[in-house]
Write a structure and sequence with these properties.
By secondary structure, this protein is of the alpha+beta class. The chain contains six helices and six strands. It has helices at residues 2-29, 48-54, 74-80, 136-185, 191-222, 234-246, and strands at residues 34-39, 42-46, 68-69, 94-102, 107-122, 125-134. The chain has a six-stranded antiparallel sheet, sandwiched between helices.
Length: 252
């Protein structure tokens, strides 16, 4: 009777374990997070979402071979699958970058995954469950915001520089006007000398006008203008772009 009871108990325990694993698989396979179970550094379970992130993952594959880890995160990823707990009792999430091939460009793109490990018992043996959440979109948006902040700061700096240039430029224009007037009214210069001085003044004035045009363009660009929809002359836009690009070229 004791043997029968023992066998029945073991049978019920096995059924309970199988039912628990079936329930676990059902939940994990429907998860939107990539989930791996690692034992002795090898993958013993992966859900469909995990294979969507990395492609085919064979059972028994070493964890380090599931994808190309960014060199700066390689050691952190090795620790993630370690049998010891490098994170302490908190087991805080860590962000690990992977380099995935991009067939269209021929290069490699960045995959940002927030990873968290948790010790579990799988198939009756101690294992490590690693769940991975794709946060690439979030990181991409953070980079866009950072670039916009830099552009905003650059616009403010450009406006300040333009303001500092505009003041001495006014003095240059005033002196050029005075020089032109003195040249015209001078009685101690020959006509040929007056022509040479006048040409030099005109060239300097033209260069000053181009600098002034650049300054005005920068000041206008830095002003916060609400977006509006309207018809525009495309030719005029192109002409202004060409004029703006040519502004740094100073006549000699």
């Amino acid at each position: 009777a004791e043997n029968v009871a023992g066998m029945l108990g073991r049978h019920l325990a096995q059924e309970a374990l199988q039912e628990s694993e079936d329930r676990f698989r059902s939940l994990v396979e429907k998860s939107s997070s990539g989930i791996l179970i690692v034992r002795d550094g090898q993958v013993v379970f992966r859900n469909p979402r995990q294979e969507q992130l990395f492609g085919e993952i064979r059972e028994g594959m070493p964890l380090r071979e599931i994808g190309a880890v960014h060199p700066e995160d390689a050691e952190l990823f090795e620790q993630l699958g370690s049998e010891t707990d490098p994170y302490g009792s908190r087991r805080r999430p860590v962000v690990i970058r992977f380099l995935l091939p991009e067939p269209e460009s021929g290069g490699r793109g960045m995959l940002w995954l927030q990873c968290q490990r948790q010790p579990v018992t799988f198939q009756g043996r101690p294992s490590i469950l690693i769940d991975m959440v794709d946060i690439s979109r979030l990181k991409h948006l953070e980079q866009i915001v950072a670039v916009r902040d830099k552009l905003s700061l650059l616009g403010q700096m450009a406006a300040g520089i333009a303001h500092e240039i505009r003041n001495p430029l006014s003095g240059i224009n005033l002196n050029l006007s005075t020089l032109g007037y003195l040249c015209r009214e001078s009685e101690g210069m020959t006509e040929e000398e007056k022509v040479k001085v006048r040409m030099a003044v005109e060239q300097a004035q033209a260069a000053s006008d181009k600098v002034g045009s650049v300054v005005r363009s920068i000041m206008e660009f830095s002003k916060p203008i609400p977006p509006t929809l309207d018809r525009i002359d495309v030719n005029g836009v192109v002409e202004k772009a060409v004029e703006f690009s040519a502004a740094p070229i100073i006549d000699r």
